[in-house]
Amino acid sequence: MPTDAKEKTVTRESGKQAEDQKKKQQQEETTDKATRKEQKKKRREEKKKNKKPRRRIFPIWLRIIVVLLLAAIALALGLIVGYGVIGDGNPMDALEWETWQHIIDIVVKEG
């Protein structure tokens, strides 16, 4: 029986040691994670500080004007193609005010 008691105390001690080692590993992992996060924050801050300010060669206001111009050109080309080619009319008549006044008169009278 004395050997059994010794074995039990040895296994208890080794079990406690294993638990202590697990606790230490968990603490190290949490501290490692915390230090990694801090390092990432530091790296991000350094990148922000070292980052050159962005200089736009093509400013936003100019982009808006260009897009509006392109939209107007596309509208005009669509009118010309639709009225002249598909509608069998004179393509340049699509851009005259009298043509649109006539179309408006037709729509309003029938509606």
From TrEMBL:
Residues 1-53 are annotated as: Disordered. Residues 1-37 have a biased composition (Basic and acidic residues). Pfam families: EpuA. Residues 38-53 have a biased composition (Basic residues). InterPro entries: RNApol_su_b/EpuA (IPR024596). It comes from the Bacteria. The chain crosses the membrane at residues 60-86. Keywords: Membrane, Transmembrane, Transmembrane helix. This is Hydroxymyristoyl-ACP dehydratase. It comes from Lentibacillus amyloliquefaciens.
